[in-house]
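Good day; I would like, with your permission, to put a structural problem before you. What I wish to show you is a protein chain and, alongside it, a tokenised description of its three-dimensional fold. Here, with my thanks, is the record as I have it:
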Amino acid sequence: MGALWDAIVEAIRLLASLDPDVYKIAWRSLWIALTSSAIAFFFIALPFGSLIHFNNFPGKTALITLIQTLFSLPTVAVGLIVWVVFTRSGPLGSLDLMFTPKIMVIGQAILVTPVMLGLVISALRGVDKAVPETAAALGANSLQSSIITIREAQFGIMTALVLGFGRAVSEVGVAMMVGGNIDGYTRTLTTAITLETSRAETELALALGFILIFIAVFVNVGLLLISKRRGPIGWLLSNS
């Protein structure tokens, strides 16, 4: 119990003292997770989830089942795949992205995409069928009916974004394998916690863990509060 209390005191001290190293690590963790989540959500999960939901094609059920199966995709497996593809001897090694924040964003985006994609599809499937049918009866075309359905599923869709961010900010496998945990460059809160634990610096590791939890809770609550108002989905579709 004493170690836990010491960790809480240490976390408060680190935050109150505006320790530059800690804040740099925390900021790096935050922007990498936010960037990867935004890319996965706005460029993959939302558009492709909508396409899958609103269209019928052979193998649709099997595809959705595969996406849901990938919810539990191990982070180290994603890290290994990204490493093989982007290492110097890999097919995309010429891009020279290994052990940079950019490759960490790519890896985390791949990791969270199945979760976001599956949850977007589930959110759209949860909308009452009477909603698009009523819209169509009132003269809406297929695109307008789809937009109305997406608006109705906004809270569920935002939940997908929140959960995706939560997985991105808390993962360590991808960040460690392709980022390299380089001090001042690719070190994040999760990799720093792993390093400090291996050094038996338990108090500092716990302090960084509390900071990580605070960031995750703060961002997730903020996103959920936004979704209860108009939300980014409603903003994007407001003029449609």
Remarks:
- The chain has a mean pLDDT of 87.
- The first helix runs from residue 2 to 16.
- Residues 193 and 209 are 7 Å apart (CA to CA).
